Amino acid sequence: MSSLDGDVSQNGSLKRVDALRALAEIEEFDFSRSLDKPPRTLNMERQRSCDERSMNELFGVPSPSPRPSSRAENNFRLSDHLDGLYSPGRRSGFNTPRSQYGFETHPSVAEAWDALRRSLVFFRGQPVGTIAALDNNTDEQLNYDQVFVRDFVPSALAFLMNGEPEIVKNFILKTLRLQSWEKKIDRFHLGEGVMPASFKVLHDPIRNSETLMADFGESAIGRVAPVDSGFWWIFLLRAYTKSTGDTSLAEMPECQKGMRLILSLCLSEGFDTFPTLLCADGCCMIDRRMGVYGYPIEIQALFFMALRCALLLLKQDDEGKEFVERITKRLHALSFHMRSYYWIDLKQLNDIYRYKTEEYSHTAVNKFNVIPDSLPEWIFDFMPVHGGYFIGNVSPAKMDFRWFCLGNCIAILSSLATPEQSTAIMDLIESRWEELVGEMPLKVIYPAIESHEWRIVTGCDPKNTRWSYHNGGSWPVLLWLLTAACIKTGRPQIARRAIELAETRLVKDNWPEYYDGKLGRFIGKQARKFQTWSVAGYLVAKMLLEDPSHLGMVALEEDKQMKPPMRRSHSWTF
């Protein structure tokens, strides 16, 4: 397996990829090609692009001088297996009035850091996470006063990019301890590897003590276990290792066991005929009934990402080797399945439109017996000539053609999407900017379901009315995922445009959880203010644009062994 983590000098010390390359240069940057180069010491004195020179000269700003990594030499026992750019956790320029490029930072940045630090949660004197929301204008806390695993991810990335890894390490270890707890809903015991959806610090003033209380789904709306928590935990463990160069955390027996327990849940054999994971509604970010039961793209993309991260982090001992073999087989099957059956573009849409049904035998083209009349009317106008995406769900006689932002962005970052598919997803976002971005990035799902379909699919959910919340609402937290995907595909101008759009509203609106309306014009009717992942998502997006070498924390290059499927000349194999 090729190393993605950049450039290693002969004495073993890791050199930071030149973070000072101009953003104009990034637009032409071939991410995967640079990662394929053999390890060497980078020439830190790269010539600046014409755009960077002209901008600096225009504003009278001195040229940024390269800053060597402040990290001591690291002994990487897992380094031969770690891919992606080495992303040193140095402090970003956002702690100071001016960024490292010499330009004034946007006023929203200082506000965001202040809000993020106020959201910190401490346990016995140590920071262990960030609260979901710090909205003091509402008496109804629900579970927004807890630390959610998925919600903490952008906060963790922000602290890592700012050179503050301790809180991330504390979070990883505390949630790992919670994983070992007995998990029971009514009289049923959950799997040993299930990670909590969230936890809360309880203070006992009488005994002057603190304890943790975890929720594994037994208190959640709908009582659904969080399938995505374990995947995000593995993702964060890799991000921490990438950022710090410290492999000792991942190599701890407890972390190795934690990964194996999560993987055991996902790789267990059963009645499945597909390599995808069968899930209930409400098991991920979309944590209410929204018709995502079955094989949702968000879970499959996160599953793929977690498998690839685990493959890099597992030790090559007897237990580790067994899992490595199982992971490798599953990755090949999963990539083929997703690239073959979830991908849609104009040609694929036309093929489905012409499908025959009731085919029997292994030579069937319409393998899932999808009825062409089930194609929604909106997709014919939505699909551009150039562009495509992974649809929401595929199962027998069912295809969910809705756009899911998180799943498609993770597909790009994990290289579940081929380079051609990644480019097509970016083309779609540009072509359908008004629908997917509008006045506030980004639509979590498109389009909204309404009327009779809304009543049937959501059970008349008053929170998921059309163009609200998960039903077509706009979520600022998704900015970091879009920005990372844009940088990986060499299209940072798309992210820059979205961030500038968000900056016109976020601080003024006090960092809402989500926005409502077709264009995302209105603050969500039940949206919490000072939603922490809205704050952190914005910060991570800004820091990724400032220093694209941070991309190594969250992105993986394409595995050349997982080749895209061969397509038939006249039909889409289904």
TrEMBL record:
Pfam families: Glyco_hydro_100
Stored Gene3D superfamilies: 1.50.10.10
UniProt-recorded Gene Ontology molecular function terms: endo-alpha-N-acetylgalactosaminidase activity; sucrose alpha-glucosidase activity
Domain of life: Eukaryota
Top-level class of the enzyme under EC nomenclature: hydrolase
Feature: compositional bias, Basic and acidic residues: 34-55
GO biological process terms on file: sucrose catabolic process
Entry EC no(s): 3.2.1.26
Annotated stretches, region: Disordered: 34-74
Keyword Protease listed: no
Hydrolase in keyword set: yes
Alphabetic keyword roster: Carbohydrate metabolism, Glycosidase, Hydrolase
Catalytic activity, reaction form: Hydrolysis of terminal non-reducing beta-D-fructofuranoside residues in beta-D-fructofuranosides
PANTHER family for this protein: ALKALINE_NEUTRAL INVERTASE B-RELATED (PTHR31916:SF40), PTHR31916
Family: Belongs to the glycosyl hydrolase 100 family.
Function: Invertase that cleaves sucrose into glucose and fructose.
Protein name (Swiss-Prot/TrEMBL): Alkaline/neutral invertase
Source organism: Salix udensis
Lineage: Eukaryota, Viridiplantae, Streptophyta, Embryophyta, Tracheophyta
